[in-house]
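STRUCTURE:
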């Protein structure tokens, strides 16, 4: 049962004295159990057990305080990563819906090479297609480039479908005049069918950390697969 002193209002205009805090904690021994976050900031007293004797209780409490701080930092990073992933997912969903609104093959290519940059919050988006150098290139659309046979494997690694690079060097064959603006990029292999040449969807960003090797790749791969399917449909590729 609470005493009248416990129920009396506290004068917040006057700071509490150490004796008042001590008296309150003595009356409420479970206070810290109800507010464990206070342990993060409280400094525990050292136990005096003689010279050369380690205060293990103080050590263990300090370690718990450090662990609590690390967990809070990890939680903040997890929340930030979750928000970033949700943003990226919304951007990719908008890009895929834009592909479905194409009214012609030329319109489809324009959506990828012009509209995707704004939808995905990057500096430049290009499509590259491998072509035998002996044949005259017939592609003249902006941000669509021809690469020599085998160049996609050389850039990404043999058989690799996606490459994320941080602080990437400028690649004019892939990004054209915008190459000097690119500080990080994502390269995704495009396979239209067994007979069609290999392609590349390239996204370049000004930010050095927009793309990095530890980043999730599922959404970018989904975007590339959606683009492949749309190209097959417009070109009647089996």
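SEQUENCE:
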């Amino acid at each position: 049962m609470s005493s009248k002193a416990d129920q009396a209002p506290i004068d917040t205009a006057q700071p509490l004295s150490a004796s008042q805090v001590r008296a309150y904690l003595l009356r409420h021994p479970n206070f810290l159990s109800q507010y464990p976050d206070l342990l993060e900031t409280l400094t525990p007293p050292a136990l005096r057990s003689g010279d050369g004797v380690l205060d293990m209780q103080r050590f263990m409490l300090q370690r718990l305080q450090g662990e609590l701080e690390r967990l809070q930092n990890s939680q903040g990073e997890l929340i930030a990563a979750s928000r970033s992933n949700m943003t990226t997912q919304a951007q990719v969903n908008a890009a895929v819906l834009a592909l479905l609104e194409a009214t012609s093959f030329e319109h489809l290519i324009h959506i990828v090479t012009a509209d995707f940059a704004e939808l995905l919050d990057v500096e430049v988006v290009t499509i590259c297609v491998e072509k035998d150098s002996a044949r005259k290139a017939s592609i003249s659309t902006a941000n669509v480039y021809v690469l020599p046979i085998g160049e996609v494997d050389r850039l990404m690694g043999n058989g690799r479908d996606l490459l994320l690079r941080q602080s990437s060097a400028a690649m004019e064959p892939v990004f054209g005049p915008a190459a000097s603006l690119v500080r990080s990029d994502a390269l995704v292999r495009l396979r239209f069918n067994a007979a069609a040449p290999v392609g590349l969807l390239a996204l370049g960003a000004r930010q050095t950390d927009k793309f990095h090797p530890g980043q999730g790749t599922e959404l970018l791969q989904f975007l590339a697969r959606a683009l492949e399917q749309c190209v097959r449909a417009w070109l009647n590729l089996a």
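REMARK: The helical segments are 4-7, 18-27, 31-34, 56-100, 105-119, 151-156, 172-175, 218-235.
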